[in-house]
From TrEMBL:
Source domain of life: Bacteria
Annotated InterPro entries: Homeodomain-like_sf, HTH-type_TetR-like_transc_reg, HTH_TetR, Tet_transcr_reg_TetR-rel_C_sf
Keyword check for Transcription: yes
Domain HTH tetR-type: start-end pairs: 20-80
Coiled coil start-end: none
Name assigned to this protein: HTH tetR-type domain-containing protein
Gene3D superfamilies, per the entry: Homeodomain-like, Tetracycline Repressor, domain 2
Residues of the DNA-binding region: 43-62
GO molecular function ontology, one term from the record: DNA-binding transcription factor activity
Keywords: DNA-binding, Transcription, Transcription regulation
Amino acid sequence: MLETDDSALEPLAPATAKGAAMRERLLNASARVFARKGYEATRVEDIVKIARTSYGNFYRHFRNKDEILLAVLKPLVDEIYVASKRRIGRSLKATEAEFVENTIAYLKIYARHRKLLRVMREAAARGEKATFLSLYVTERSRFVRRTSTWLTRLQGLGELSGELDPEMAAEVLGATMEQVSYMKLDLASEDPGDAEIEHIGAHCAKIWYRGVFGSVKEDSAAPN
């Protein structure tokens, strides 16, 4: 993981309501620009033009385009993280049908923000050239850690084979979802509809679930 000075990535908090309104205006403008132009082609000039403000206002709130991209993406990643959590009251292992439901919920939120999430991968691919990589690795690790913790707990209860490495399994399964999301959603020429997302989600979830727990009986399998 890339080590960075965390204080250098902290946003500059607005001191007044007017400042907060300007910050929000800049965030909305940058989301539009990044989604349309991608990471490399976006310039601070583009953002201030859409926001109808000055460079000075931009730099009062953000140090560079990496920092404003972080601020735009963080709530989106948080939304996806919450959407993909196990529902309260369900068993620890969860049925395949429940897993399908969670995966589809994850993908529907992902699809809603697919253009900006594509920018996230584009920015992270620049590696240490962008301060963005640190956040990408940190945010991704939240998902992997949650899955690894879940699999470890299931191993402790005898619900999962002891030969499976929970951390490695979480990495592989997480990477599979990331790549499918990128190929089927990020790179799609048009916004995917609910039926397509449900089809993708059901297949991803079944392959994921059966890869970890083995095949399921036909009468308990999730619908297509």
